[in-house]
Amino acid sequence: MQPHNQRENEAAKVILDARRRPRFKMEVDITVHSRTCGVLTGHTADISESGIAAILWLEVPLGELVELEFTLPFGGVKILATARQRNAFRYGFQFAESNAIHQAIRDTCRHLAFERSLLGEL
Description:
By secondary structure, the protein is of the alpha+beta class.
């Protein structure tokens, strides 16, 4: 029988792992439409089913809901996202919509995962 604290720690780890989605390197141009900063341009660094990382030269306030425009292999995307993280010029955006656009993002991540498996990347 496991000690109570160890079970709680394992349960917390499972919850954290369940929230994390694999990230896939994807470098495309991105446009950010911000209410406070106007239109910003940059490029993406990686994507997951739940969000995208982008390199931007101008600051976006954390917590702000923005519209992102970028291109996937399946076509152009416009999606709402919240600026969640910032590390120097790298921003993490969490997608706010769950619809056909989000399905295209999931399809892209699956495609990138398949390519990664063919290349033997970890």
